């Protein structure tokens, strides 16, 4: 499945309900006064709902400086604490502020509608803008990557992060068209290479844009590190809720919770079971939830979303146990 944007408030100020909002709040089982980490603050949709559900404090993380700067006006609540940082570093940031442990952590993975709606950020091809795609607004831009990387590296990124079946063909077209500087230019190159025509179910450029964005922002590495950081930050009985938007993300979350809950498949006579490892750090792993038909009718962008939740046990975090 191809990644869609998180449903948050766009730049025009219109309020949209975040994807799987009610299910996330229910999954966190908030009691009055809880401290909840919103690891992907964005435009504040989840934070606002968490505070409305009785959280005593919401700690919003975001690597995008615009999200942090706009946060106080989007969620004008003294119970909100905003931290400009990657969510993979939440444990250290919380420790530095004497905020550990926390009662819940929610992560809404992917690019926000706020970022997509700003053409100058270069995340989308619906409105032409510079090839940027940097969530933190620092580091290598999409234009720099596409104009400097060799064909094999571009093809690898498209195949690995966009699951593009004709990655080599698209990479060849990109190299032949260099230099590229605008999102409309890149989209046109990809469409020509793959044979775009009116009436297609999805735009073939979508996979390429997804792949480049994931690569530039190291999103999958960030997700893996963020799950471990959440494991270290949650108290026993604390809850984790993660919303993903495509199979690459969901696979990582599914594997993490399967392993941490001790649900790894048993061995067989052909493949003996490995020696017992650390004690399960999560339990009560619920079945994944997808948006209801009613939500999809309101927000078709939510079609690929999936929510996974779990409850923290009192066992040490796995990396802490291994280090002991």
Description:
With 324 residues, the protein is of the alpha/beta class. The chain folds into two domains: 21-114 and 219-265 and 273-323, Rossmann fold, CATH 3.40.50; 137-216, Putative methyltransferase TM0872, insert domain (DNA polymerase, domain 1), CATH 1.10.150.170. The chain is built from 14 helices and seven strands. It has helices at residues 21-28, 45-52, 65-74, 90-96, 113-116, 142-148, 151-162, 167-177, 183-194, 205-216, 219-233, 247-260, 293-298, 318-323; strands at 35-38, 57-62, 80-84, 102-108, 234-244, 282-283, 306-312. A seven-stranded mixed sheet has the order 3-2-1-4-5-7-6, with helices on both faces. Strand 1 (35-38), helix 2 and strand 2 (57-62) form a beta-alpha-beta unit. Helix 9 packs across helix 10 (205-216) and helix 11 (219-233) packs parallel to helix 12 (247-260). It starts with 20 loop residues before the first helix and ends with a helix. Mean pLDDT is 89; it is low at 1-5 and 7-13.
């Amino acid at each position: 499945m191809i990644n869609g944007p998180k449903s948050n408030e766009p730049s025009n100020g219109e309020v949209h309900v975040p994807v799987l909002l009610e299910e996330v709040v229910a999954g966190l089982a908030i009691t009055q006064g809880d401290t909840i980490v919103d690891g992907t603050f964005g435009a504040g949709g989840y934070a606002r709902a968490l505070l409305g559900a009785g959280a005593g404090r919401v700690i919003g993380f975001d690597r995008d400086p615009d999200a942090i700067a706009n946060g106080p006006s989007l969620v004008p609540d003294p119970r909100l604490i905003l931290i400009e940082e990657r969510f993979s570093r939440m444990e250290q940031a919380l420790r530095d502020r004497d905020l550990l442990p926390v009662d819940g952590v929610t992560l809404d993975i992917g690019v926000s509608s706020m970022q997509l709606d700003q053409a100058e950020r270069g995340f989308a091809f619906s409105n032409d803008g510079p090839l940027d795609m940097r969530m933190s607004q620092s580091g290598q831009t999409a234009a720099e990557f596409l104009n400097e990387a060799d064909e094999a590296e571009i093809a690898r990124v498209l195949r690995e992060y966009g699951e593009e079946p004709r990655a080599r063909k698209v990479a060849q077209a990109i190299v032949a068209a260099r230099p590229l500087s605008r999102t409309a230019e890149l989209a046109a190159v990809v469409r020509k290479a793959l044979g775009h025509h009116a009436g297609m179910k999805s735009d073939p450029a979508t996979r390429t844009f997804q792949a480049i964005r994931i690569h530039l922002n190291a999103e999958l590495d960030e997700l893996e590190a963020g799950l471990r950081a959440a494991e270290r930050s949650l108290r026993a009985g604390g809850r984790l809720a993660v919303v993903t938007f495509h199979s690459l993300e969901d696979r990582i979350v599914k594997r993490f919770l399967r392993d941490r809950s001790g649900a790894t498949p048993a061995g067989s006579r052909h493949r003996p079971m490995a020696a017992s490892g650390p004690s399960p750090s999560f339990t009560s792993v619920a079945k994944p939830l997808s948006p209801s038909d009613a939500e999809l009718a309101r927000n078709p962008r939510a079609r690929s979303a999936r929510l996974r939740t779990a409850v923290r046990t009192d066992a040490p975090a796995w990396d802490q146990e291994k280090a002991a």
